[in-house]
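Hey team,

Sharing the Lysophospholipid acyltransferase family protein run so nobody has to redo it. Sequence (240 residues) first:
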Amino acid sequence: MIYGAMKFSIGGPLRLAFRPWVEGIENVPAEGPAILASNHLSFSDSFFLPAVLDRKVTFIAKAEYFTSPGVKGKLTAAFFKGVGQLPVDRSGARGAGEAAIKSGIEVLERGELFGIYPEGTRSPDGRLYRGKPGGLARVALATGAPVIPVAMIDTEKVQPPGKVLPKMIRPGIRIGKPLDFSRYQGMEGDRYILRSITDEVMYEIMKLSGQEYVDIYATAAKRQIAEAAKAAEAQKKAEA
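Structure output:
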């Protein structure tokens, strides 16, 4: 009930204001479990994708969105619950991964859609980064659910990182054909299989999005960018 109300109050205005275009929506099954594996360009990705689908999509969100104190904290928690996001404590990397996997399996066992960003974090520069093995692949193998590659287009231009007010730019969503990994069933413990599945999904996302692919993790790229900015600032001060 809450999700339906939120979808109506948020999804409708989003579609009306930004008019997102969609290709391949027929690849999302009308019923039954499926994993939507998407690139991640903007905070708004988790709102635009559910807005164009008739079915509920559950994403994972950091627990802080659900536990902040005060009136603002309660409103934020209610909002994220209303749009179908689940809290995961990310204070410990391994614990966070296991919690996300468990949550994803539970969503799919209910016959619902589970949304996941294989890159693990937003792209720092609009390029597509290496997918993290484990989460996506393990959930797919544990449930047998098909993996549907999704490409968000230009959402980073709608709401660039650090910007509060969005720009009125029309984003796009391309949805690929479902990928079946049942041939690897029972091989969740093989890291090479997990890597292979993840790379296959990332390749399909790359074809859909047209992004340049970078074979490092986005988290490493963010560190490199931060270190370069720090070094440039130090150089600037030294020359002053």
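The chain is about 45% helix and 15% strand.

Ping me if you want the raw files.
A.
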